[in-house]
Specification:
It contains eleven helices and nine strands. It is an alpha/beta fold. Strands 5, 6, 7, 8 and 9 form a five-stranded mixed sheet that branches. The longest helix has 22 residues.
């Protein structure tokens, strides 16, 4: 089978399902596993793939994510007679279903089922544990200028929510709204999570945002954006990581000093 993957987390999933040898092209943002993707042709970015080259490669299947990739590219590929598998999981449960669907599409159902069952088992465990503990209010920043946050109906919101997190921006209509420093301060999150992607937040940005908002510096935490936003074979680890992030914030709230 000849596969093209246009989403980094799906590329990683293909390798983890032992179908990496079937990949004939990926995007330049597909970085995991490093040794595996190094040998695969790159066909541009997620938003601007070289569709002409993809068609020339005559893949049996192109994997896309509806958030990462453009609908017009999918339409062009389908018009050329290429089979496309587009997914858009916004929850942990939908991620398990996506893993099963892709496993079926690339003849790797057994491996996909193992990953999906692992996701569901960890989901149940972490949700059950969180029910016995107080919720923790958080904000999750994905961009610096302007400040952008993940709101409701996003994978990261569901992932942190299952661990007992309560997103302070769930009332926003947009999934990734822009907020001001004043709005962030007024929301009063117990923790402000600064993601490593798509904007690579660093400690100096935490200092900056603390100054802009007036929120205590200790509320700002750098977090691994790959573990919290990549859906697929990374999700089992992401669930455990989300639990550790919320637990750490909860500890800071209940024992502030």
């Amino acid at each position: 089978m000849r596969i093209v993957s246009l989403c980094p987390s799906l590329t990683e999933l293909v390798f983890d399902l032992d179908r990496g040898a079937d990949l004939v092209a990926v995007t330049r943002f597909c970085i995991h596993p490093a040794d595996g993707v190094a040998e695969v042709e790159k066909v541009g970015g997620t938003k601007n793939p070289n569709v002409k080259r993809i068609i020339e490669l005559e893949p049996d299947l192109v994997l896309l994510n509806e958030e990462e990739n453009r609908i017009e590219d999918a339409e062009t590929l389908r018009a050329a007679g290429i089979v496309c598998h587009a997914s858009f999981p916004k929850t942990v449960a939908e991620t398990a279903a996506m893993v099963r669907s892709i496993g079926s599409a690339i003849d790797a159902s057994d491996g996909a089922e193992r990953i999906a069952l692992d996701i569901e088992a960890r989901d149940r465990r972490v949700r059950a544990s969180a029910r016995c503990r107080p919720a923790v209010r958080f904000a999750y920043l994905i961009w610096r200028e302007p400040i952008m946050v993940a709101a409701a109906d996003t994978f990261v919101d569901d992932l942190l929510g299952l661990a007992g997190g309560e997103n302070v921006f769930t009332a926003r209509k947009e999934r990734y709204p822009t907020v001001s420093a004043a709005e962030l301060a007024e929301a009063g999150p117990a923790g402000v999570l600064l993601s490593s992607e798509p904007f690579p937040f660093q400690e100096r940005h935490a200092d900056e945002l603390s100054g802009l908002t007036g929120l205590p510096r200790e509320r700002f935490r750098l977090v691994d954006g790959e573990l919290l936003s990549w859906h697929g074979s990374r999700t089992p680890r992401g669930i455990d990581y989300a639990e550790s992030v919320i637990s750490e914030l909860r500890g800071a709230v209940t024992d502030p000093g």
